[in-house]
Amino acid sequence: MDSILKKGLFLVTTAGAITAFPATAYASDTATDDVMPQMGIEEVLNNCYSSDKEIEVEDYLVPTEKGEYLDMAFANVETFLYIRSEPTRESEWVGKLYPDYAAKILGPVGEWTKIESGEVTGYVCSEYIIVGNSAEQKAQEMVQDSETEDPTDAFTYAESKEEEEERLAREAEEAALRAQEEAAAKGGTGQAIVDFACQFIGNPYVWGGTSLTNGADCSGFVQSVFANFGISLPRTTRDLVSVGTPVSYDQAIPGDIILYDGHVGIYMGTGQIVNAINSAQGIGILPATYTSIVTVRRLI
After folding, report:
1. Are 23 and 13 in contact (CB under 8 A)?
2. Do residues 107 and 86 lie in contact, with contact meaning Cβ atoms separated by under 8 Å?
3. Each residue's pLDDT tens digit in the chain (300 positions)?
4. Cα dihedral across residues 32, 33, 38, 44: positive or negative
5. Rounded distance, CA 50 to CA 62, Å?
6. pTM score of the predicted model
7. Domains in the chain, ordered, with CATH?
């Protein structure tokens, strides 16, 4: 019997668990394919046990062919697919499947299919999901591409209506916080620009000049101040009217530049600008609204 177990090929049909019902086994350990006497699986196993051989019972059972992921479905959409509480388009939606999101099939695939995905259970329109062998193939590819230790980590599951509301609220809060941080950073840089520019108050105005110490005109002064912070600006007020981002005067912050008809200055806040005024006054401070404003530009 030891020789038979080594060389033979057994096919034993069982009904459910292993029982003592007889089954016919065939083996070939010669070229003539002799037929063995009939025996039940208990006898096969007893003979193996008596010969101190380790065997796996599953080796003697007829396997059931079934894909590992045949009970899965994947959203075949470009935006998202509603998961509804009932199999109708009029019913309330309870979650969303985004492109390639995964779900487990809970019911027959008809016009509507009952699925479970993440924390959401409901119905999806079968027209927009991938199922069967196509789903099996897609799942296998996603698992291979993910290279994760746990194959289930390769899949992304539905977002419930409540989860979406929480996510959107969280994202709005984070966006507001980022905007505040950016404004604070800009304000800090803008104030640094103002502080730097104010060091040169009292220095001379020179038409066509760009020297902060020996003399500059209005646009030369602005150009040289911003150059110190790595910001390159055009030389004339005519070109400066289109740089940066336009903002209204009531939104102006320190470091913005304010342009007038033929003149430009750096907004200091509190309704003032630092600028190269004229040959009589040199570099100094003026009210931001001393004359009509053409535009306010934000450069940081």
Report:
1. yes
2. no
3. 444 433 343 333 333 333 333 333 333 233 334 444 444 445 544 554 444 545 444 443 333 446 789 999 999 999 999 999 999 999 999 999 999 999 999 999 999 999 999 999 999 999 999 999 999 999 999 999 988 888 889 999 999 999 999 999 999 999 999 988 887 777 789 999 999 999 999 999 999 999 999 999 999 999 999 999 999 999 999 999 999 999 999 999 999 999 999 999 999 999 999 999 999 999 999 999 999 999 999 998
4. positive
5. 24
6. 0.51
7. 2-60 (no CATH), 72-157 (2.30.30.40), 187-298 (3.90.1720.10)
Partners of residue 205 on adjacent β-strands: 216
The answer to whether the beta carbons of residues 90 and 73 sit under 8 Å apart is: no
Phi-psi map region of 4: left, alpha, beta (phi>0 left; psi -120 to 50 alpha): alpha
- Please answer whether residues 31 and 12 qualify as being in contact, where contact means their C-beta atoms are separated by less than 8 angstroms: no
Structure tokens at 235: 């030389």
Query: Tokens at residue 183, please?
Result: 């404004």
* DSSP string over 204-263: PB-TT-EETTTEE-HHHHHHHHHHTTT----SSHHHHTTSSEEE-GGG--TT-EEEETTE
Picking from 111, 78, 75, the residue whose alpha carbon sits closest to that of residue 95 is 75
The dihedral of CA 15, 18, 23, 24: what is its sign?
positive
Find where tokens 């959203």 sit: 75
